[in-house]
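step=predict obj=Citrate synthase n=427
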Amino acid sequence: MEQKKAILTIDGKTIELPLIEGSEGERALDISKLRQETGLITFDPGYANTGSCKSEITFVDGENGILRYRGYPIEELAEHSSFIETAMLLIFGHLPSQTERAAFREMLSSQELLHEDLLHHFEGFPPYGQPMSILSAVINSFASYHPDLLDIQTEEEFRLAVAKIISKVRTISAFAYRKSLGRPFMYPDPNRSYCSNFLHMMFSVPYKEFEPTRAQIKALSLVLIVHADHEQNCSCSTVRMVGSSQANLFASIAAGICALWGRLHGGANAAVIEMLENISAGRMTVKDYLEKVKRREMRLMGFGHRVYKSFDPRAKILKKAAHKLLHDQDMTGDPLIEIAQELEAAALSDDFFIERKLYPNVDFYSGIILRTLGIPVNMFPVMFAIGRMPGWIAHWYEESRSGQKIHRPRQVYMGPPKRRYVPIEER
Ligand code: ACO
């Protein structure tokens, strides 16, 4: 079949730009030869129209509110899968057989402890240390503890590195929390499931084990599943960019954690709770808040998305899950969920939000679930990072095996033209 092309005429010269078509019909103009043939580059601040790679991992259709991991709809995974099975799907490309899943669970259990020397790192942080900075620093330090995994060549090495990260990230996160409270670290319990073990390390105290309910485990698993990947967002692109220089997996993931930290990305779930609490405490009404948003004095946190322009399917799943968890915990009168719904309804019927196609995103309801689970607000971005780990790893692996060049965008220089150096006494 003849490849489709677009024709570009510039300065009297005509060139052909090949059209690439993805497996779900998304079309892209291949401009990789544009500069070579015309001397021009494209200008796309924020990369909103730029496809940075070909990927087989996650499909998002923002116009129709569709999210699929390796072809499986997020709604089906949320209903039937576990976080670990979803992680395996994203990283290894297929739903695992029972044997594969059991073997991987075994690996996760064998990797859940931290090297005792690594525990000294926690002592070096002040008690008020930010959990995201602790998480990124400790993951980065893995490169020193596992020099054998700096240059991953075999599938076995990759599997081991994956198990180390996925398993230890929850230990590090829980330890960072315990450190901030001055409480003793609770070591992982290999007999517990992934989510139950995390909640145990967070909330058990010596001689008093925390036993999460099934509803709590399910809610946490769901939060992690819906966060597990979201194609080329800011943190994923960061991981791919760092990885494109052939930086090791641990360093690339640490960079992803830092990218996630910002309020416009993984920090938004905490900002949502802050906003709801301000309204709940009577410092502002829903109406006042929306007026301030429309005067551009602030943003409606947990609303809007670069890609989703009808609805975010993750927000739908988490809204339902938040109601279920509150019901199971006998907390149906929780004021924050009421305010969240009032805000959502008011925004969705307001022209400002309608015209800009702004809908609740994943962060609008995830904070309510995390808060109901007893997770403190400064740990919210960390929870996002635990969930996003499989996506980052899958993208790092895909990037490292793609043979793609180092990522290196260009720019349109707008600074001063050439000028002579002026000695300090003449300035
Ligand atoms: N509240 C108020 N106005 C908004 C919001 C919002 N939450 N989001 C976008 N807008 C407005 C902008 O002011 C802009 O209006 P204008 O055209 O009149 O200037 C228009 O909608 C387009 O907004 P952009 O900032 O250009 O959209 P972009 O795609 O760059 O931003 C983002 C997406 C960062 C998510 C934005 O919607 C936002 O800041 N939301 C709040 C923070 C948030 O919830 N982040 C979590 C994102 S999901 C995630 O990371 C998992």
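step=describe
The radius of gyration is 23 Å.
step=end
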